[in-house]
Amino acid sequence: MPAPRKYSDELRERAIREVRTTGRPVAHVAKDLGIHKEALRGWVRQAEADAGERDDRLSTAELDELKQLRKENAELRRANEILKAASVFFAQEIDRPRTRPSR
Which string of b and e fits 69-87 if b means at least 16 CB within 10 Å? Predict the structure, then answer.
């Protein structure tokens, strides 16, 4: 379960909109709204990436896809390890000589 967010989505959107529309410095907007300036700076950068204005960051959709693909990749790696272990086990069973039980 992810940690609860310190700031509401409405406050984030308002702060980002104010920085982008007014052109005021991030530090001034952050101080006015009671937000840490580096948090606001990150939000603005992410909003710019989502809008396609930045090439140095992944968009939110791309980050979500990357997270999902990494999870799927880890799951497939675990499945491969299980299958390798099973194939070793069955190969040993096949190679074992068969003897009749003595009476």
Answer: eeeeeeeeeeeeeeeeeee
Q: What is the pTM of this model?
A: 0.68
Amino acid (1-letter code) at residue 63: L
Length of the chain equals 103
Distance CA 32, CA 54 (A): 26
Are the beta carbons of 41 and 15 closer than 8 angstroms? Answer: no
Which amino acid would we find at residue 61? Answer: A
Summarised one tens digit per residue, pLDDT across range 3-12 is: 677 889 999 9
CB atoms within 10 A of CB 47: 20
Sequence letter at residue 3? A
